[in-house]
Amino acid sequence: MSILSRSFIDWLTKYANQLDQSNQYSDELFTRLANDGVFKVGVPVELGGNGGDYHDVIAIIEELASYSLTAGFITWGHRTLIQNLIESTNPLPREKWLPVLLAGQLSGGTGLSNAVKFLSGIEELQVKIIEKNGKFYLQGKLPWITNVSKRGFITIFAAEYADNRQSPVIIALPHDATGVTRSVELELVGLQGSNTVALLLENVALNPAWIIADNASDYLAQIRPAFLSFQCAMAFGLAKRSLAEVEQSLSGNRSILEKEWQAQSEQLQKLRQSLQTGLAQIDYFVQQPQALFQIRNDIIEVASQSVLLELQASGGRGYLKKGGSNFIRRWREAAFLPVVTPSVVQLKTILQQH
Predict the structure, then answer these.
(1) Pick from 263, 257, 160: which is nearest to 215 by CA?
(2) Which residue ranges does the record assign to the Acyl-CoA dehydrogenase/oxidase N-terminal domain (predicted)?
(3) Could you tell me what percentage of the chain is helix, strand and coil, using 3-state DSSP and rounding each to the nearest 5?
(4) Rounded CA gap, 286 and 258, in Å?
(5) Which burial class, exposed, middle or buried, applies to 39 when counting CB atoms under 10 A from its CB (0-12, 13-18, 19+)?
(6) Are residues 226 and 347 in the same domain?
């Protein structure tokens, strides 16, 4: 049963296209998500949440993405940051920021894309920790972070010591730290209402209390199942919605598409079950990350094929601006999924190496 209120679903349905193409309603979207308790899903009750587990988080992100991938995307970023604070052995960031993150008073931007690529040997870390006169400072740039509101935010990312004195670390950084600069929103083809920006860090004095993990590689391996499975939920939602649109046309002159619709529907269910089974086994995806990588790529393929099938089912109506269809928005949303870090190409490269 959905936790989303009828009023929020109606609002999201009404403004989904605007959320995709402008920043006008981005802060209102975030506030409405918080007011409906979305960010508390899967968070232990003793920490201020509503209880539940990863499956509940996946379900709510999937539902949101079926209405608006922008809503699903910022929920992924925010909820993944929250999960990182929960998993950390350092209680200080959790005690200080979790209540305001759950309430939606601050937004949470997960800047771990660079770190995930680093863990997979694809990219170097882009933030350095530099020592000056016995003190440590953060220097670098995070070129793409989602859900970073002008009203205030927390972000997490990996940083490495410039002199390699110890392993890279994971840091939770508040928006009001001196030396943090938020760019204007990046101009995206879609999901423009996701508050996606770049952050520049210039001589930011490092507070040791911000370090949520002393060993980035070990920590990222543990948190990666949440990071990627929550991403899978976005593709689940988009595929589910497109296939529902196709189903409505099968009784008419598009019945020729039924076999393809059935194949994609079955594959969607198969991948959903594979993800649930893997998550149900303790540390399975930690020890077998390639299995999760394959699921992630396969569900994006299903989403892409489902949207293409929707185009065939809608015909020319789907290409009309005022044709009564939201197909074009879903087409843009589907085009976004393969480039979300780690991208489909990056995961294919890793899978080929193994």
Answers:
(1) 160
(2) 12-104
(3) 60, 15, 25
(4) 38
(5) buried
(6) yes
Closest CA relative to residue 132, chosen from 203, 49, 196: 203
Residue 120 domain-assigned? Answer: yes
Q: How many CB atoms lie within 10 A of CB 204?
A: 22
Instruction: Judge contact between 101 and 39, C-beta under 8 A.
Output: yes
Residues 193 and 250 in one domain: no
78-127 per-position pLDDT tens digit: 999 999 999 999 999 999 999 999 999 999 999 988 887 787 777 889 99
Q: What is the pLDDT of residues 52-92, one digit of tens each?
A: 999 999 999 999 999 999 999 999 999 999 999 999 999 99
Determine the distance from the C-alpha atom of residue 351 to the mean position of all C-alpha atoms in its chain, rounded to a whole number. 22
> What is the distance between the alpha carbons of residues 215 and 211, in angstroms, rounded to a whole number?
10
Q: Would strands 127-132 and 107-110 be described as parallel, antiparallel, or unpaired?
A: unpaired
Residues in the chain: 354
- Determine, yes or no, domain membership for 1: no
Structure tokens at 62: 């999937």
pTM: 0.95
Q: Name, in order, each residue with C-beta under 8 angstroms of 348's C-beta and a sequence gap of 6 or more.
A: 297
Tell me how far apart the alpha carbons of residues 63 and 72 are, in angstroms, rounded to a whole number.
8
- 269 and 206 in one domain? no
Domain with residue 159: its CATH number is 2.40.110.10
Cα gap 126→164, rounded to integer Å: 14
